[in-house]
Amino acid sequence: MTKYSFLLVCALTMFVRGPALGEETQGMEGLLSSGTRIMVFSPHPDDETLGAGGLLQRVLSLGGTAKVVFMTSGDGYPEGVELEDHIEHPKARDYRAYGREREKEARQVLAVLGLEEKDIVFLGYPDGGLCKLASGAYASAEHPYTSPYTERDRPPRAEAVLPKAEYDREDLIREIRRELLEFRPNLLAFTRKEDFHPDHCSTYVFVNEALVRQLEEHPAYKPTVLNFLIHYGQWPIGEESGTGSLLLPPKDFPEKDWISFSLKPAEVETKRRALLQYSSQMLIMGRYLMSFARSNELFWLEPLRSGKEIAGARCCW
Fold it and tell me: What is the value of pTM for the model shown?
């Protein structure tokens, strides 16, 4: 299911109020200091800002360090390519060009939030294909996955973290582990396993698996893990969407212990300006993107899962 499909669902339904949020915990503020090294894993360009644009700003304002790793470049989005380039039947070259455009937008967006070029990594894995890799169907390089959009079976040469990496499960886990080893984040943020978008759910599976393997080899390395939600039914578009209003959790979400991270007015405005730089996405789902420019961001303090616990995660909806 594409983001465009989620937008149609959201536009046809009313906002569902989540459970009342408690006072913001001091624990969240306690995670942030000049020594914070935050790494955000984003399934596509825009998810990092939607879910953690304010948090990234806060860490940098305190003198901390930030890095954003994009799992995909958002190049497997037919509706976006068709509308952006006025092409009825896009070819592989069109999808590849669209991915480069989304990478360019991501750099502009993150510059607004205060990150530099060196703080951004594009892994170049297949948009719309992460679930196929997470399922184990493509567990080794002997049978790499091929994107039906870009027709690639490996990351672009300029983006491959490891030489000869291909579209298979183990290569992606190795690339994530390489990023963790090089940056050594003490705070991680990425999408939740319950996220309705398969790439988002799969990002959770891959990053968690990489962390589990890191801990097996380096038991002393125990970063704090935060999850954020992007797609969950009709949430969060509705009558209370818009800059300044409170972002509430989905009413029927299985977990209730959310952390509401309050943003300063300047952080909300900067997040709004940053999102506007995603012009290709604003063209299609502007209202949806701006519904995340609220006075707070929602996170879940996530314990590390064992390989067995995440093995059953259902991402291919």
Answer: 0.89
